[in-house]
């Protein structure tokens, strides 16, 4: 009887240890796959399709529209987005495509092509924040980039 109790106690301890290791591994995996969120504010010169601004942590934000096609009151576009100086850590360039909504927002999706997060999927949402100095060709936007790093 003592042997059965001892074996049962050891079995419970082993199962608890395995469950703990699996739970720890799952927590680590979900933490490492969480998106990286980068808030920004940008000003766009719509006459040349270029935006510049700053991220929430002080890095530069540049966006160059590479194609633009109006579709009624909305538009389809592609853009190259660069955050920071590409030679520095945590900086990157992404190729993105998406749409401009007549409701006052831009949604783009793409892939990081160069820099710290090469291969990561990236999503951008920008919300219209007004005209700069009353000039309808200069617009202000606020938003965020969400990066999902490529798996190892």
List the SSEs and their pairings.
Elements: H1 2-32, E1 36-45, E2 50-55, E3 60-71, E4 74-83, E5 92-101, E6 105-115, E7 121-132, E8 135-148
Antiparallel strand pairs: 1-2, 1-8, 2-3, 3-4, 4-5, 5-6, 6-7, 7-8
Overview of this protein structure:
- With 152 residues, the chain is α+β, with helices and mostly antiparallel strands.
- It has two domains: 1-34; 36-148, Tick-borne Encephalitis virus Glycoprotein, domain 1.
- It has one helix at residues 2-32, and strands at residues 36-45, 50-55, 60-71, 74-83, 92-101, 105-115, 121-132, 135-148.
- Strands 1-2-3-4-5-6-7-8 form an eight-stranded antiparallel β-barrel.
- A hairpin with a 2-residue loop joins strand 3 and strand 4.
- The longest helix is centred in the N-terminal third of the chain and has 31 residues, at 2-32.
- It is globular.
- 18% of the residues are buried.
- Residues 3-30 have low confidence and may be disordered.
Query: Between the first and last Cα atoms, what is the distance in angstroms?
Result: 50 Å
The average pLDDT value, as a whole number, equals 84
Number of strands: 8
Spatial order of strands in the largest sheet: 1-2-3-4-5-6-7-8
Top CATH class of the largest domain: Mainly Beta
- Give the total of domains: 2
Measured on Cα atoms, how large is the radius of gyration? 23 Å
What are the low-pLDDT stretches, counting only 5+ consecutive residues below 50? 3-30
CATH architecture descriptor text of the largest domain = Sandwich
Quick synopsis:
The protein has one helix and eight strands, in the order αββββββββ.
């Amino acid at each position: 009887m003592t042997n059965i109790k001892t074996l049962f106690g050891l079995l419970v301890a082993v199962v608890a240890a395995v469950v703990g290791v699996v739970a720890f591994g799952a927590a680590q995996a979900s933490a490492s796959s969480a998106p990286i969120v980068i808030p920004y504010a940008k000003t766009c010169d719509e006459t040349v399709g270029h935006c510049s601004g700053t991220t929430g942590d002080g890095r530069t934000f540049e966006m160059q529209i590479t194609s633009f096609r109006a579709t009624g009151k909305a538009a389809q576009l592609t853009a190259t987005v660069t955050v920071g100086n590409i030679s520095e850590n945590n900086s990157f360039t992404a190729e993105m495509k998406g749409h401009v909504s007549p409701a006052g927002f831009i949604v783009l999706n793409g892939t990081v092509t160069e820099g710290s997060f090469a291969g990561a999927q990236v999503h951008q949402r920008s919300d219209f924040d007004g005209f700069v100095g009353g000039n309808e060709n200069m617009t202000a936007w606020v938003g965020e980039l969400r990066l999902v790093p490529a798996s190892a």
